[in-house]
Amino acid sequence: MRRTVPMPGEPGRSVGLGLETTPLSCGDFYWHHGGNALGYSSENGVTTDGRRAVTAATNSFDEADEAWQDAADRAVKELIDNALCGRPAKP
Fold first, then answer.
1. 91 vs 47, 53, 64, 79, 88, CA distance in Å?
2. pLDDT category, 34, cuts 50, 70, 90?
3. Where do the structural domains in the chain lie, given as residue ranges?
4. What pTM does this model have?
5. Total Cβ atoms within 10 A of residue 45
């Protein structure tokens, strides 16, 4: 599952059998697999050494308002990055 190939148009990211990697701002990268359905989104991640893991679930999936959904997605990605890099969440 950890044998991956680069994702076109996604610098630094790669995908394997259901798992993806994404770079962390503190170095290295994390493994994850997320999903969504109308009204719900889940994202997760685990560091390569397995010492940190996080799961975030929101009821924010909104196809009608792409700008709002993009902002919500960025906030979740920042939360995951902070948790996996060992930084406290912003108030």
1. 24, 20, 28, 11, 9
2. confident
3. 5-85
4. 0.75
5. 24
